[in-house]
Amino acid sequence: MQDKPEKVKEIYKNREISWLQFNERVLEEAEDESTPLLERLRFLSIVLNNSDEFYRVRVGMLCDQMLVDENIRDDKAGRTISEQLKDIWSATRKLRTRFDAAYAQVMTAMENFGVCQIRKSKRVAERDKSFLKNLFEQQIAPLLAPFIIEKNHPFPFFENGKLVVGVTLKTKNGKDCVGLIPLPDSIERMICLPSEACRFILAEDLILMFADRVFHKFDVQEKAIFSIIRNADINEDEGLYDYDTDLSDTMSKIIDRRKLMGPVKIKYNGDNCPKLISYLSRVLYLKKRQIFQYGTPLDFRFLSELENRLSENSLTSLCFPPHVPAPNPNINENGNIIEQIIRRDILLAYPFEDVSAMLALMRQAAADNRVKSIHITLYRVAHHSKIVSALIDAANNGKQVTCVIELRARFDEENNIDWAGQLREAGCKVLYGMPGYKTHAKLLLIELADGKNICLIGTGNFNEITAHVYTDISLLTAHRGIVADVQKVFAAIESGTFVQQADHLLVAPLCMKNRLIEMIDGQIEKKLRGKPAEIVMKLNSLTEKEMIDKLIEASGAGVKVRLIVRGICCVIPGIPGVTENIAVRSIVGRFLEHSRIYAFGVGRRKQYFISSADLMTRNMTGRVEVAVPIYDPACQAKLRRILNSNFADNGKARILQADGRYKKGTLSRWRKPRNSQQELSGIEER
Fold first, then answer.
1. Do residues 489 and 505 lie in contact, with contact meaning Cβ atoms separated by under 8 Å?
2. Which of 104, 142, 535, 667 is the most buried (most CB within 10 A)?
3. Active site (annotated) includes residue 384
4. How much is the pLDDT for 123?
5. What is 504-536 written as a DSSP string?
6. How far apart are CA 226 and CA 166, in angstroms?
7. How far is residue 237's CA from residue 509's CA, in Å, rounded to a whole number?
């Protein structure tokens, strides 16, 4: 590959552009007129949140690198930082235009259901003007803390995402200045007007409407709502153990530091306000291409309030039909679940099957006198976690409970710090993993006094909330070899070392990547000997260059490589003589595709694994990750059903083309539309 640099751009996709393509696929769900209207708004909310987090993390990182050397190139597509940033800004503007159009279309359609957002004073009926004026003066204005920026009053600090109303002002003496009104946290965001219908105005729009009353001594010339998106690219491991013995103290300091990071983007909503935007650009040291105008609200956290205002009849028409997870047919929740697992392996598939089986297992383990100890890894847990409550109950019942809590789970640090404190107070042993390596593996180990131990190994977090909206898989097993390997992983974490060899599990950072390469090589060797060979992988992201190159090598040898990659995919398939045997598809739908499945070979000898790890550098070499083989034939059949349904999807699947673009699966009169998530959950089309 290195001898043919001219082919680099054809084979590899830049990571950042691939991520923007993923967010475009989410936007397509919001543009899809077959999607219920409130769900389309939720997809728009996801698009906006994704974009803000992308700028905070990835663009923040690129901006930091730009200060060091703007000619640094990414290791796959070979693009410089400045080239990447230009592409990002350009793509962001194109998506924003579509984003605005989708929001306008949805809100216009929502008016048929009595939902009407008031954005500007000209849309306010005469009977409502006095209501809004009185509400503003009596309830809103007393809570406001406006700033006037003059020579002796510098620009104040606003935290990430804070909504602010900005105005340009002219004094009686003809001098120009700027006024700022941050939206108070205590104000209800969604303000409903007196009406049988759901007519509302957002608090920031109401403040904008009456900004001249706040600055009544000035001539208000320009008005806009803006929000500053700040860099969050902090190296959590830098100097991590130099000054604190307690990682929770360190992470608290990092969280505080993140709040103070520099701006990377400004979003604003307002018409004809060049002076204000020029001022913000100058005072925040941003280029104008880092400032984006929206025709929509700047955050969508009001959606939950909107949903609460709607009638049951409206919600039926505006939302997806209710999803009721099925019970796992192999688990009797009223019986002894531990004994059921000892008798046979069980595969749980969320959200198609109910997470209640896992919660019942946790409750039973907490109360069962045979259970002597519980070990678990926690990465992202629910705010009111029933799982953590069960662990606390187990500790109160005298069991040894060890919790490996990853405090460095980005943007969940504060929640995890709180849970760590509660678990420690209950008598649980709390570990934070190792310096420089996040513990991302999803492991539960339940040890019994009689030595009949069981474990759970999954693709997703121990989180009963996300289990209703993320597609994830968990293996429950008493397989002695697998259990022994899980014990080895926990022992390594407790001793501050890594697993160097495991008999059944693939364990990062030392013995996962090499084992995966060996299995890919095994398929290459089979193909070269004229035997059937195939590699199937279902992932969230594919960015690790050595793994990509190995898949390209397999393709070159004639091995069929079929990939389901929801998000970032840095290999371009279908290039003759290079990646012609690689096929890539992405599925974006009602549920977030989150499970990772690896499969090697064909027929009865096909090897199946489920894993917490994507094929990314951070997963392969910078985290503690685990992949577990699936030995039970019934569990393997379940994985085949999931994969076959994903590959047959022609409704929500997008196929990555050789030109680097994604295309929706084609429908014809000979093939009925197939939505894999509906098939697997039993949800029928309306």
1. yes
2. 535
3. no
4. 63
5. S-EEETTBSHHHHHHHHHHHHHHHHTT---EEE
6. 7
7. 16
